[in-house]
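Onboarding guide, step 5: your first structure request.
Type a short instruction followed by the sequence, for example:

Predict the 3D structure of this protein.
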Amino acid sequence: MKSLEDLIKLRDQARQMTALREENAQTKVIIGMGTCGIAAGARETMKAILEEISKQNLSGIAVTQTGCMGLCEQEPIVEVEIAGQPRSIYGKISPDKARQIVSKHLVNNNIIDEWIIGRK
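The system replies with structure tokens like these:
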């Protein structure tokens, strides 16, 4: 930190990342972060989602994590829940695929069917 402006910028970034985890959002993205998910790369997947949401300056999206979803062979698993629509569950999501989910599904409402492993 070299200046007050740097500190203010860091604070604003922290607030923005905290806002992404709020529960009252219209859209939720849930990443499976059980030990199987973490071993398969779920941390990197979650980081990519958070970065892409921030990069595109999106709001109203809560990003949370959960424990094991029971499909260890499909990890990392990302679940997208948009109000009024069925949940979409994506499997084997790399950081690159995670960025595409944000751009295609969250922004343009285009579900990427070839990565879907379930719908609720």
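Each response can be followed by summary notes, for example: The mean pLDDT is 90.
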